[in-house]
Specification:
Blueprint (H helix, E strand, L loop, with lengths): L1 H6 L13 H11 L7 E8 L4 E15 L2 E12 L4 E11 L3 E5 H6 L8 E6 L1 E5 L8 E13 L2 E22 L2 E18 L2 E15 L3 E8 L5 E11 L1
Antiparallel strand pairs: 1-2, 1-13, 2-3, 3-4, 4-5, 5-7, 6-8, 8-9, 9-10, 10-11, 11-12, 12-13
Protein backbone atom coordinates (compact mmCIF):
# COMPACT_ATOMS: atom_id res chain seq x y z
CA UNK A 1 0.00 0.00 0.00
CA UNK A 2 2.86 2.39 0.75
CA UNK A 3 4.28 1.79 -2.71
CA UNK A 4 0.87 2.52 -4.20
CA UNK A 5 0.58 5.73 -2.16
CA UNK A 6 3.83 7.03 -3.61
CA UNK A 7 3.23 6.10 -7.26
CA UNK A 8 -0.24 7.40 -7.23
CA UNK A 9 1.31 10.91 -6.49
CA UNK A 10 2.51 11.05 -10.21
CA UNK A 11 -0.03 12.46 -12.87
CA UNK A 12 -0.33 12.77 -16.79
CA UNK A 13 -2.70 13.48 -19.94
CA UNK A 14 -3.20 13.86 -23.79
CA UNK A 15 -3.35 16.62 -26.53
CA UNK A 16 -4.52 16.60 -30.17
CA UNK A 17 -3.42 20.00 -31.60
CA UNK A 18 -0.34 19.25 -33.76
CA UNK A 19 0.39 22.98 -34.11
CA UNK A 20 1.09 23.12 -30.34
CA UNK A 21 3.50 20.17 -30.36
CA UNK A 22 6.66 22.05 -29.30
CA UNK A 23 4.89 24.13 -26.64
CA UNK A 24 3.18 21.04 -25.25
CA UNK A 25 6.45 19.14 -24.89
CA UNK A 26 8.10 22.11 -23.18
CA UNK A 27 5.21 22.52 -20.74
CA UNK A 28 5.25 18.80 -19.92
CA UNK A 29 9.00 18.68 -19.29
CA UNK A 30 8.84 21.85 -17.20
CA UNK A 31 6.19 20.23 -15.01
CA UNK A 32 7.49 16.66 -14.85
CA UNK A 33 10.75 15.77 -16.67
CA UNK A 34 9.89 12.81 -18.90
CA UNK A 35 13.29 12.40 -20.55
CA UNK A 36 14.27 8.77 -21.09
CA UNK A 37 16.67 7.66 -18.37
CA UNK A 38 15.60 10.21 -15.77
CA UNK A 39 15.22 8.65 -12.32
CA UNK A 40 13.83 9.72 -8.97
CA UNK A 41 14.55 8.05 -5.63
CA UNK A 42 12.30 8.30 -2.56
CA UNK A 43 13.41 7.10 0.87
CA UNK A 44 10.63 5.69 3.01
CA UNK A 45 10.41 5.97 6.82
CA UNK A 46 7.99 4.81 9.49
CA UNK A 47 6.33 7.11 12.02
CA UNK A 48 9.42 6.83 14.24
CA UNK A 49 11.77 8.05 11.50
CA UNK A 50 13.24 4.59 10.86
CA UNK A 51 14.22 3.84 7.26
CA UNK A 52 11.96 1.08 5.92
CA UNK A 53 12.71 1.11 2.21
CA UNK A 54 13.39 2.98 -1.01
CA UNK A 55 11.21 3.58 -4.07
CA UNK A 56 12.84 4.38 -7.40
CA UNK A 57 11.02 5.53 -10.56
CA UNK A 58 12.82 5.54 -13.93
CA UNK A 59 11.56 6.93 -17.24
CA UNK A 60 11.96 3.74 -19.27
CA UNK A 61 10.73 5.04 -22.62
CA UNK A 62 9.30 8.21 -24.17
CA UNK A 63 7.39 8.94 -27.36
CA UNK A 64 6.31 12.31 -28.82
CA UNK A 65 3.19 11.81 -30.93
CA UNK A 66 1.74 14.99 -32.41
CA UNK A 67 1.12 17.21 -29.43
CA UNK A 68 1.19 14.35 -26.93
CA UNK A 69 4.09 13.12 -24.81
CA UNK A 70 3.76 9.50 -23.73
CA UNK A 71 6.12 7.71 -21.36
CA UNK A 72 6.55 4.29 -19.76
CA UNK A 73 7.70 4.38 -16.15
CA UNK A 74 9.41 1.61 -14.19
CA UNK A 75 9.02 1.65 -10.41
CA UNK A 76 11.01 -0.52 -8.00
CA UNK A 77 10.57 -0.93 -4.25
CA UNK A 78 13.56 -2.03 -2.13
CA UNK A 79 13.56 -2.89 1.55
CA UNK A 80 15.76 -1.21 4.18
CA UNK A 81 18.63 -3.58 3.29
CA UNK A 82 18.52 -2.58 -0.37
CA UNK A 83 16.94 -5.80 -1.66
CA UNK A 84 14.37 -5.37 -4.45
CA UNK A 85 10.97 -6.65 -3.29
CA UNK A 86 8.53 -5.54 -5.99
CA UNK A 87 8.30 -3.62 -9.25
CA UNK A 88 5.59 -2.02 -11.35
CA UNK A 89 5.42 -0.59 -14.85
CA UNK A 90 2.89 2.08 -15.75
CA UNK A 91 2.18 4.66 -18.43
CA UNK A 92 1.75 8.42 -18.29
CA UNK A 93 0.67 10.96 -20.90
CA UNK A 94 0.89 14.74 -21.13
CA UNK A 95 -0.66 17.28 -23.49
CA UNK A 96 0.93 20.47 -22.19
CA UNK A 97 -2.12 21.25 -20.06
CA UNK A 98 -2.82 18.11 -18.01
CA UNK A 99 -0.82 15.17 -16.68
CA UNK A 100 -2.43 11.73 -16.55
CA UNK A 101 -1.26 8.60 -14.81
CA UNK A 102 -2.84 5.40 -16.10
CA UNK A 103 -3.75 3.57 -12.87
CA UNK A 104 -5.03 0.64 -14.91
CA UNK A 105 -1.59 -0.03 -16.39
CA UNK A 106 -0.09 0.43 -12.92
CA UNK A 107 -2.24 -2.20 -11.24
CA UNK A 108 -2.11 -4.53 -14.26
CA UNK A 109 1.67 -4.87 -13.87
CA UNK A 110 1.60 -5.63 -10.15
CA UNK A 111 2.24 -9.15 -8.93
CA UNK A 112 -0.97 -11.17 -9.21
CA UNK A 113 -2.24 -13.65 -6.66
CA UNK A 114 -2.11 -17.34 -7.58
CA UNK A 115 -5.20 -18.51 -9.49
CA UNK A 116 -6.68 -15.00 -9.32
CA UNK A 117 -7.18 -12.76 -12.37
CA UNK A 118 -7.91 -9.04 -12.22
CA UNK A 119 -10.03 -7.19 -14.78
CA UNK A 120 -9.78 -3.42 -14.55
CA UNK A 121 -12.09 -0.56 -15.57
CA UNK A 122 -11.27 3.14 -15.74
CA UNK A 123 -8.47 4.59 -13.67
CA UNK A 124 -6.84 7.82 -14.80
CA UNK A 125 -5.41 10.13 -12.17
CA UNK A 126 -4.84 13.64 -13.50
CA UNK A 127 -3.57 17.02 -12.45
CA UNK A 128 -3.62 20.28 -14.46
CA UNK A 129 -0.18 21.76 -15.09
CA UNK A 130 -1.54 25.27 -15.62
CA UNK A 131 -3.60 27.55 -13.39
CA UNK A 132 -3.33 25.46 -10.23
CA UNK A 133 -4.65 27.41 -7.26
CA UNK A 134 -4.86 26.81 -3.54
CA UNK A 135 -8.35 25.55 -2.80
CA UNK A 136 -8.76 23.69 -6.12
CA UNK A 137 -10.51 20.33 -5.97
CA UNK A 138 -8.76 18.08 -8.49
CA UNK A 139 -10.71 15.61 -10.60
CA UNK A 140 -11.46 12.32 -8.82
CA UNK A 141 -9.80 9.12 -9.98
CA UNK A 142 -12.11 6.08 -9.93
CA UNK A 143 -11.19 2.51 -10.79
CA UNK A 144 -13.01 -0.83 -10.56
CA UNK A 145 -11.13 -4.09 -10.08
CA UNK A 146 -13.06 -7.30 -10.85
CA UNK A 147 -11.55 -10.43 -9.31
CA UNK A 148 -11.96 -13.57 -11.39
CA UNK A 149 -11.19 -17.18 -10.52
CA UNK A 150 -11.58 -20.11 -12.93
CA UNK A 151 -13.60 -17.83 -15.22
CA UNK A 152 -16.07 -16.81 -12.52
CA UNK A 153 -16.40 -13.37 -10.96
CA UNK A 154 -15.53 -13.59 -7.27
CA UNK A 155 -15.78 -9.95 -6.30
CA UNK A 156 -15.37 -6.29 -7.20
CA UNK A 157 -13.45 -3.52 -5.51
CA UNK A 158 -14.05 0.14 -6.32
CA UNK A 159 -11.26 2.58 -5.46
CA UNK A 160 -11.89 6.34 -5.40
CA UNK A 161 -9.13 8.92 -4.94
CA UNK A 162 -10.07 12.53 -4.09
CA UNK A 163 -7.53 15.37 -3.97
CA UNK A 164 -7.54 19.00 -2.93
CA UNK A 165 -4.81 21.65 -3.21
CA UNK A 166 -4.44 22.97 0.33
CA UNK A 167 -1.39 25.25 0.15
CA UNK A 168 1.78 26.24 -1.67
CA UNK A 169 4.93 26.13 0.42
CA UNK A 170 8.66 25.49 0.49
CA UNK A 171 9.69 21.93 1.41
CA UNK A 172 13.23 20.77 2.25
CA UNK A 173 14.23 17.13 1.69
CA UNK A 174 17.60 15.36 1.16
CA UNK A 175 17.48 16.15 -2.58
CA UNK A 176 17.10 19.91 -1.95
CA UNK A 177 14.53 22.61 -1.24
CA UNK A 178 11.53 22.96 -3.56
CA UNK A 179 8.41 25.07 -3.94
CA UNK A 180 5.53 22.63 -3.67
CA UNK A 181 1.78 22.31 -3.88
CA UNK A 182 0.44 20.63 -0.75
CA UNK A 183 -2.25 18.21 -1.92
CA UNK A 184 -4.55 16.36 0.49
CA UNK A 185 -5.38 12.88 -0.81
CA UNK A 186 -8.39 10.90 0.42
CA UNK A 187 -8.60 7.29 -0.78
CA UNK A 188 -11.66 5.13 -0.27
CA UNK A 189 -12.37 1.55 -1.28
CA UNK A 190 -15.59 -0.48 -1.33
CA UNK A 191 -15.67 -4.24 -1.89
CA UNK A 192 -18.25 -6.83 -2.81
CA UNK A 193 -17.40 -10.55 -2.58
CA UNK A 194 -19.71 -13.24 -3.96
CA UNK A 195 -22.66 -10.85 -3.84
CA UNK A 196 -21.99 -9.69 -0.28
CA UNK A 197 -20.80 -6.19 0.61
CA UNK A 198 -17.61 -6.23 2.63
CA UNK A 199 -16.09 -3.52 4.85
CA UNK A 200 -14.07 -1.08 2.77
CA UNK A 201 -11.23 1.15 3.82
CA UNK A 202 -10.22 4.79 3.92
CA UNK A 203 -6.82 6.44 3.99
CA UNK A 204 -5.53 9.99 4.24
CA UNK A 205 -2.23 11.29 2.94
CA UNK A 206 -0.51 14.55 2.06
CA UNK A 207 1.44 14.84 -1.18
CA UNK A 208 3.94 17.66 -1.79
CA UNK A 209 4.24 18.10 -5.55
CA UNK A 210 6.81 20.40 -7.20
CA UNK A 211 6.60 21.53 -10.83
CA UNK A 212 9.60 20.21 -12.77
CA UNK A 213 10.29 17.47 -10.22
CA UNK A 214 7.16 15.59 -9.21
CA UNK A 215 6.51 14.24 -5.71
CA UNK A 216 8.97 15.67 -3.20
CA UNK A 217 7.38 14.34 -0.01
CA UNK A 218 4.45 12.14 0.94
CA UNK A 219 2.92 11.62 4.39
CA UNK A 220 0.38 8.91 5.28
CA UNK A 221 -1.86 9.15 8.36
CA UNK A 222 -4.23 6.81 10.17
CA UNK A 223 -7.88 7.67 10.85
CA UNK A 224 -6.90 9.39 14.11
CA UNK A 225 -4.44 11.69 12.33
CA UNK A 226 -1.30 9.91 13.54
CA UNK A 227 1.61 9.79 11.09
CA UNK A 228 2.11 6.17 9.98
CA UNK A 229 4.88 6.56 7.41
CA UNK A 230 6.36 9.10 5.02
CA UNK A 231 8.61 9.33 1.97
CA UNK A 232 11.09 12.02 0.94
CA UNK A 233 12.86 12.68 -2.36
CA UNK A 234 16.47 11.64 -1.78
CA UNK A 235 18.00 11.61 -5.27
CA UNK A 236 17.33 12.95 -8.76
CA UNK A 237 19.20 11.79 -11.86
CA UNK A 238 18.64 13.64 -15.14
Amino acid sequence: MKTITYFTSIFCAILFFFSFQTLAAQNCDNFYPLKKGNSFEMQEFDGNNKLTGTNTVVVKDRRDIGGTVEATMQGTHMNAKGKAESSVEFKVKCDGSIFYMDLQSFFSSMEKQKDMELTLEGGFSEIPIRNINVGDQLKDAVMKMHMMQDGEKMGTMVMTIRRKVEAKQSVTVPAGTFECYKIAVESESAMEMMGMKMPGGKSHSIDYFSAGIGTVKNEAYDKKGKLMHYSVLSKITK
